[in-house]
Each structure stands twice: as structure tokens, then as C-alpha cells.
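Memo to structure team: turn this sequence into C-alpha cells by end of day. - J.P.
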Amino acid sequence: MRKKLSLLLSLLLCLGLVPSAYADNSPFTDVAPDFWAYEEIMEAYNAGVMTGTGTTESGGKIFTPSGKLNFPQFVTILTRAFYNDDVQNKSFSGPWPEPNYLAAYLHDLFTDVRSWSYSSEVEVTREVMAQMMYNVMVDKGAILPGAAEIQATMNKIPDLSSVDSNYKTAVAVCYYLDLLSGVDASGTFAPKGVLNRAQTAVIYVRLKKAVNTLSTGIPATPGTASPDTPPQTPSGATLTNGMPVTEENVLALLEEYRNGKEPGERANAAGFTSYVDVSKYDAYEPKYRIVLPSGPMNGIECAKFAFAFFDELFGEDTPMREVTDKADIRPGDLLHFDGHWAIATTNTYSTQWIEFNIRTVDGGEAGIIAWGNVDKSLRNLITAYTRYPE
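Reply from structure team:
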């Protein structure tokens, strides 16, 4: 049974294993004892992990809770928290943040982190935070969720398609463990969003407790499979890039096309030169022919794009079938609405007002491709087709 980290932390609090009340005299002039993240900031301060950003004219310490973090600052927090002996090692000479970078490098904290994140001018994003937190947990030997839990979690993140392909496993693990969860009621992850210093203090406390708890074997069985082991595809079916047909691999391929992967030969012959946002194609000539379960069909306008892109992902010879339950629609599925065709880029999800929502990539009568980033209701869906194995 899945054991959420939040329940574990509640248990720890009940048992009194977490440092209790700090003194009500905050060392920071801008963090009052009734501030929402007061205890976490005090814990980070007392551990020497986050010591403040400076002083006032009168000499009082300031924390700057709403201040944003750049990449070196987050590296500093992680290395002070988990590798401070290395940071303090006299052989790690040099000005800040060189000792922290060296400690991070020695413990593989930069694994899979995009190089452009390293700049001191770049605010560290939530997806980069997730990757580095994941790397800490791996380095510390934490027992992490297995492939099935990770895949199920990915299915619940409505904006997973906007997560850099490098970071998806790390984001899912942090989401699963409630280290970095959704930013709204829909569970949106907001991978390109940034956290302020107060929020980061909370993240530090959560990560420290996760490492301390999961490294001791609690919970006993969240999964022992390698977190990056993809689910097995029963039929051996593959996508057009040769990868097994799994949701994770479909999302990765969608992202490749969105970022500039060139269309294949058949799509190119039909007039598609790019699938990036607002790229253009001839919506009418030539038509794009596809064989649906109901029979062959020639597509123009939005249908032309949807049919071509459906083949681009799975291959034109891959069998398809109808999806009978809206809740089972997955990324890459072909959607037929009343008067419109599109390709799903997310799983279905619910909001406060509408039970079945989805996001899509679409073409139109003007021959312009659009990667939608808003909720689209499935109320007027007629049929959905999938090429995932049964």
C-alpha cells in the first residue's frame, strides 16, 4: 500500500521526533514568529543551511523570505544540508560557490541537470530543484518509489508534457513523496515556476526528513525497482523512434516534436515541415489519408494534422482501437470532437467544475499548429482512438 510521506511526517510530529518550538525571538527582522514558514526557516537557520541575505542599517539580520533563488544558491543549500563536511574540507579551496559546486559534483548532484541551469543569473526552476533533490536521495540511498508508482504519478500530473524530458522521473518522485507537489487544485506542477526563499526552507525540511526516513527502510515497500526502469510493453509495440509504447515515452516524443524534431517522410510529403507551435502546413492539398476502425478517411484542416501526427507518433501500420471510457484517454490518442480533430497531450483530469478535461495539440482551417495550454472539456467528444497496447 502506498504510504505518503506526509503521513510519515505527521507520525514523526506526533512522536515528538521533530525539533519543537524554537524561541519566539526570531533572529530575522523580516520573519516574525507568526510567519507561515517560521519554524522551517528557523530549522534551516539553526542548521546553518540558510543564514540570511544580509543586515539592516541598524545591524538586524534579514532573511528576505520572498526573494528568489538562483542555481548556485540552491546548490549551496543542498551541499550545506547534506555534504557540509566536504564543503568545509580545506582542500576545497576557492571563493563561493566553488567549494559547494565541487561537493555537488563529487556526489553527482548535477546528473541530468541541463547545463544552461548553472548560470548565476538564472533563477532555479521547480523541475531543476526536483532533479537535484532526486539526485540527493539517490546518493543517500533512499528507498524510492518503483516504476509502477512513478508511472501512475506521471499520469496524475496534468502538465507533465511541459516538464523537460530530463526531469520527468525526478519530478514524479518528488510529486509522489509530497516534496514538490501541485500548485493548484488540479495538481499542476508548474515546472518552469520558481520558489522563494521561504518556500525553499520548507522544501529543505521536507527533503531532510525524507532522506532520514526513507534511508532507514521506512516505508518498507514503496517499491524497489529502479526508478528509471520503464514499464514493460506487453506486445513489444514501439513508437516511430523505436521506444516502447508507454505514456512516458509518448510524452517524451511529443516534446521532441514540439521542440523541433522534423516530420517523417509521409508527413513531409503531405506538406508538414515542422510541428512546433504556430508552424504552418497546407490544410487542404494533399489530403492526408488514414484508415480508422470505421474505415478509410481523407483528412483536411484539423483532421489532416491530427491524422498525420497520430501516424508520426505510432506509425501508420500500428493497429488502433476506440477508447470507450473518457477517463482512459492518454497522451498521443486521436480525439474526434464535434467539428474538430486533435491529439491529446495529457491524460484526462478533473477540475472543480468539469469532470473530464484534457490538453491537446491541434491544427486548423488556416493550417496553423497550436500546442494548447488550457483546459479543454471532453463534453463534446464523439470518439477517441488509441494505439497503446491492450
